[in-house]
Amino acid sequence: MSAIGSVDWAFLEFFFGDHGKITVAVIALLLTTISLLIATLKYLAARMAKKERDDARKERDEARISLQRQLRKVQEQEEVLAATAAELTKKTTSLSLTAAIQHDQEAALKEREQKLGEVRSAFVGQEHDLWCLHKARPPSGQNYYNARMAQRQRQKPVILVANLKGGVGKSTLVANLAAYFKESGKRVLVIDGDYQGSLSNMLLAAEEYDRASPEINRVLEPGSTTTAFKSACYRFQRRLAGSMIVASSYALAAMENRLMIEYLLGDDRRYDDGRYRLANHLLSEDVGDTFDVALIDAPPRLTAATINAFCASTHLLVPTVYDKTSAEAVGTFLNGVRTLKSALNTQIDLLGVVGTLTHRQDSLVPREQNARNMAKDQVASVWGPDFHVFERHIPRRSAIAEAAGGDIAFYRDETVRGLFAALGAEIAGRLWPQPAAEPPRPPRVQQTPRAAASEPAHPVG
């Protein structure tokens, strides 16, 4: 339009002559039409460009939205893959753990089968071999145990009264020896290791105490402390005032079975060696300060309590009836004791063999004397020359039988008191041997003195 405005129309009219105005009008119309056409084309081009821009922007936005959707899908797929991978890892770990557990279970099963095989083999052999199945693990180590046992042997002896033959008067012997030692000024610790509880009933009846409870169970529990041991001791108030007892009852039998099974399967290794729990107490200073001499009554079986008593004892006293069967049984018993001594308690000594339930008070009838000689031969062949058979034997006395279960015969009958006092003195002479008296100096005259120095009591080897 600006181009049309700049045309000199007057000149054009003059130039074209008579038809100049018409020609100029036509030219002006043409130029106007062309300008309009150009403007229209520019407008249409601008509209098309705008539409293309809008379409491109729309496509871009749609592409962006589509891309975002794809990204979300990828993220979701990645999350699913991560969850799947975690689940696979978990399952793989679980499978590995299951395999490891199964392997451990198979190994444990094989070990248990091996142990059961060893147990079966042990039961096939001698009873004492069963308790030597596993290596000894004394409290605080072998050296400490040996040193403490040697010290106890000299200062505070622990006497195990045992025989695998029943009916030989073990409980009666322990009760009356406890009375003797108490009257001799000793603080006596009595331990009843027999689940029948005969000794407990006898001594507690003398206290007018109604019922014996299985206090020894607390002593033999895994992890039992010195405090538990002291609380398990009943302090006598009447006959044996100043002394103590760890009582027993039939509840001990069930515990002994459990202890034996734990030992045989090796389950007690988690705590300690179950054979030395009583020794652990008696070797402690706290418990050692409470007694001067200890007496342990054992059943006629190598039960868990018997083995604990054996491992805790410094001396062994073997009561026996003087007949052929019992005399032979002494040798069999001591043969097993030698095995146990070698494997579990090298410090224990044979205090001696004592005859019980004899027919006469002052001497033995011929068959009893023959049985005594047989017993001596049995002991010598098994134990060697270092043994002792006590001269004092304990006869059958109605006063002893009548007191059993209700009192201590030592306090009820003068004759019985004399019998056990004589035996107690002989035992004390072996436990605490006195030095020999110096022989008298010979007189100046040349004569041979007849008075010989008295021989010292034979100490325990």
Report on the architecture of this protein:
The protein is α/β, with parallel strands linked by helices. The protein is built from 17 helices and eight strands. Strand 7 (349-358), helix 15 and strand 8 form a beta-alpha-beta unit. An eight-stranded mixed sheet has the order 3-4-2-5-1-6-7-8, with helices on both faces. It has helices spanning 2-5, 9-16, 20-124, 127-130, 142-155, 170-183, 198-206, 215-220, 226-232, 251-265, 277-282, 285-288, 304-312, 324-343, 366-383, 398-403, 414-431; strands at residues 158-161, 188-192, 233-235, 244-246, 293-297, 315-321, 349-358, 394-395. It folds into two domains: 2-121; 141-431, P-loop containing nucleotide triphosphate hydrolases (Rossmann fold, 3-Layer(aba) Sandwich), CATH 3.40.50.300. The model is unreliable at 445-461 (pLDDT under 50).
Question: Which helices and strands, and how do they pair?
Answer:
Blueprint: H1 2-5, H2 9-16, H3 20-124, H4 127-130, H5 142-155, E1 158-161, H6 170-183, E2 188-192, H7 198-206, H8 215-220, H9 226-232, E3 233-235, E4 244-246, H10 251-265, H11 277-282, H12 285-288, E5 293-297, H13 304-312, E6 315-321, H14 324-343, E7 349-358, H15 366-383, E8 394-395, H16 398-403, H17 414-431
Parallel strand pairs: 1-5, 1-6, 2-4, 2-5, 6-7, 7-8
Antiparallel strand pairs: 3-4
Helix pairs in contact: 2-3, 6-7, 6-17, 14-15
